[in-house]
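Q: A small favour: would you put together sequence and structure tokens for a protein?
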Amino acid sequence: MKADSISLGTPEVHSFFEPITHTVTHVIVDLATKKCAILDSVMDFEPNSARVSFQSADRVVEYIKANEWEVEWLLESHVHADHLSAAPYIQSILGGQLAIGAPIKEVQKTFGEVFNLDTEFDLSVGKFDRLFKGGDQFQIGGIEATVIHTPGHTPADMTYHIGDAAFVGDTLFMPDFGTARCDFPGGSASILYESIQKIFELPGETRLFMCHDYLPEGRNEFEWETTVDKEKRENIHVGESKSESSFIEMREKRDAQLGMPRLIVPAIQVNIRGGRLPESEENDTIYLKVPINKF
């Protein structure tokens, strides 16, 4: 793609809400070229029976096929602890490059130790096609995209600024729900506050798309789109120019009261592998580990 054919552009965004994990998968489209990216896909996982399926991912696949779009990217905003990624499954059907932030290596190392992964499991090779650093640029069709490193929730969180929209992962939620927890390994309330300020430096009219919505009290419908200006004015945790010290105090007190996500044990093991399950053992069965007293 020639440089003069790249523009800020206005991507069309189609969102798919998965109600069990409250996750939103976004399909980001350049209609002029019919090229698209898929952000934060979901593999369905039933923890009681340890069964995986792909109904949620198939909804996305069929929608893209019906519109005859071409997938260029399968993007992950971070290593999710609340759902399992379906990116390799979708990639096997629709193609595209699988990408995540380069600090995934730090997350892989931390949780590789937690799950005592054997030495033959190479965390750095063959799981992702592209490891983004903050400031990296790429394109979706003719629309320019810039990667913003926004750690704090985890070390590897990335915000994707694509045309006039930004996809913030778990860094921010809708204004009436606030911000992400910071008590996972490598998390930091002070770093999250700094990351949010990076997002707030984007133009006020920039559309912001969330990775989750949990329907806070007082709201009747799930929502996942807002703007920079609205977050700056109304976010209950960081809006109205709340100070860093007050944010850290609030966030750390709140995080101390939170339980672990329901799917953190399977999700982390799968997502540090780029959404791939472990290799099957000699009896043709796949196993996930359950570390005792580690979370």
In short: Residues 3-268 form a domain with the Metallo-beta-lactamase; Chain A fold (CATH 3.60.15.10). The first strand starts at residue 12 and ends at 18.
